[in-house]
Amino acid sequence: MIMACFMIIPIRAQEPAEEIPETPAETVTPAETHAETEAPADTVEPTENMGEDMADEAGMEVVADEAGEMAGEADTVKVTDRVEVIETPDNTRVTLGRNQAIIVEDDGDTVFVALGSKGVSIVENEQGETQINVIEMDKKEKRDGGEKSKKRRLKPNYAGLELGLNNYLTPDYSMVMNPGEEFMDLNTGRSWNWNLNVVDYGIGFGTDKFGLVVGLGFEFINYRFDGQNGIMKDTLSASGEIVSFEPDYAGNITKSKMNIAYVTTPLLLEWQIPARHGRFHFSAGVIGGLKMWSNTKIEYRSSGSKQKTKNRSDYNLSPLRWGVTARAGYNEISIFANYYLTPLFKPNLGPELYPFTIGLAFTPN
Length: 365
Description:
By secondary structure, the chain is mainly beta. It contains 4 helices and 18 strands. β16 (320-330) and β17 (333-340) form a beta hairpin.
C-alpha cells in the first residue's frame, strides 16, 4: 500500500519540464512510468524495491535533467521541483508543492495516510482483520509526541493579594530592641503588611511543574509603634539620625505608626506537585524593592476630640533593598515569608534593624 502511494502521488503532481517520447505500455518500467504522466496507472507493476528504484532511476534521470543533482540528505529524494520524498526509519513523507501527504508505519501493523489535517489509519490486528478509520492528524501527532504536542508553561503562584504581619530583627536576630532604641518597639499584632502582586510569569524547565518565576508587585508596610512616641530626624545633629519623637500630647496617643510603600520584584524557583484536586507548590528565591514614599501618622485625643498629625519624609530609609523569600501552599492559598538583608535605615543614620514579614497569600491562576 505504501509503495502504491509513492507511485500514484507523483503521477498526479508531476509537471514534466520537457516532452518525453511515449513508451509502449508493455515495456514500461517503474522509473519510466513515474517520468511519463500519460501512461495509465494500471500498466505499472510495483516492485519490492520501488522506493530505491525511484531514487536511482527516476530521481537520477529526472532530477539530473531538470535540476542537475539530487536534493537533500541521503534519505531525501527530490523527484521534481514539486515532488519530494523523505524516508526515515519511522516514516515516509511525500511533499507535493504546498500540500503534503504523509505515510507513517508503526511496527508494520498500522499505516497512517494524511493530507493536511485529515487522515486515514489502516490497522491490521492479530486476527488478520483490517480496520480503516478517519482521524484528525493533529490529535495523532499529539498522541505520538509530535511537534504540535507542546508542554503547558509553568503557571506560577505569585500574582495576587498578600496579607501579613511586620516586624524587624536586631543584628543578633532578636526582636528586643537594644538599649536606647526602645522607641522602635512595635505592636506586631497591629503592624500590617499589604502586598498587591499584579503580574507574574513562569518559565518551565522543560515541564510545567518546575521552573523560574519573575513578577512585579507593590508592598505597603505599616509599622505600629508600641510606645507613646513617633520618630523624627535629629535636628540637633548634622547627620540627621533617626531619634524618638515625643510630642506634648504624649500620654494621649491612641495610634502612632510609620507607613512605607515599595515596588517589588521577585526571582523565584518554583516546584509544583500534582495532587488529587490541584497542586502543592513550593518556591524560594530573592526579592528586591524600590521605595516609593513614606510618612508617619499620629492620632491622639485632645479636649475630648480626636486629632491627628501626618508628616512626609524619607526618614533615612534605604531607597533600595533586597532579601530572601519563600512560600508554600496548595492551589490558590499559600503562606509566605520575606526577610530583608538590607537594613531598614541607611547605615549610621538609624537603628540597625532588618525587616521581615510573615503572612497569607491568595493567588488565583
